[in-house]
């Protein structure tokens, strides 16, 4: 028969992490031997009704017992992550540590295995230590033993191509102005070398300075060694920069023929061509001019041209009016600290265009010096004087006067000359007296003083 009993509340299992096992013991006597017998009966426990059911074919004494078995709870892995999530290595043999973290943190089995997708790029050991092997990208995978959850890290190995040589290339190695700059360029070998920061330095900042990009600026006369070095200090190159600022130019303050001799060498109906002697160290010339004054109107000089280049010695003004006198002055200049400084000024030149009733002088004729006629040289004693008699020689037509003949000495310590051509011997030596017409043609006289 089936017997069902209700388990008392106090015998119901309410303890966590335990399993309660109920057993029914039956007690009875053996009729033959009159000995006590204990049987364990099969039983089924219904936890929803807290009832225990068993079978028995006898009326006996039944004993209900139970046994509690304790167990530990199970916490499986539900996820995994790895840090850092990306990794870059720059040297062969360089290492980095990856860290795997499973969730939950109290999981029963936290073991993780590691694997690299390309061991020619990077390897990983059982503890997540990554070692760079060669250039490229590899994926490192961490797998949880519990649940086989995975997380990956992208590892990039960039083994740099080292710079072997630096060469400095300069736009110019000599600077001639304070504040002038030049850009230095660097040629890197090999061309595929990984770039590094370059460090620039001047060994003499009183001569030249350099900025972080290799721009060199002149500070003062002298030489400076400009050096460029890779950031790791392994490779260096240098170049010598010279700063040579010209001395301040000597300015011939007085208008003179002895240094800058200008003249008109050609005239057409619509043009006048000027020519002058080249001034040493000149960087160029200014040309000033206008029409010559008339009896009723005056004309101021105006700047007509800037000649760039100290080796140029001619200039032509075109589109002029025929048969008209024009006046010119030539000024030589030098560049000083970025500015044009005038050093010499010519005597004014007056020339007439063709097609009119007036012409230009073709020469200057000296008919007498002192008591000597038709000579181009004379010897005087100190303190003595001699008068020059001279005239302009016309080409073909008469000359309209816009200024008189002019006279000038090359060395006033030897001989001076007045506006009217009177020579006075002032010291022993030799000099030249120039006699020049209004269009700039001239006669040179040699004066010796004993």
UniProtKB/TrEMBL annotation:
UniProt xrefs under Pfam families: Big_2
Entry superkingdom: Bacteria
Protein name per the record: BIG2 domain-containing protein
Chain ranges of the BIG2 domain: 76-154, 162-240, 369-447
InterPro entries: Big_2 (IPR003343), FN3_sf (IPR036116), Ig-like_fold (IPR013783), Invasin/intimin_cell_adhesion (IPR008964)
Organism in which the protein naturally occurs: Blautia wexlerae
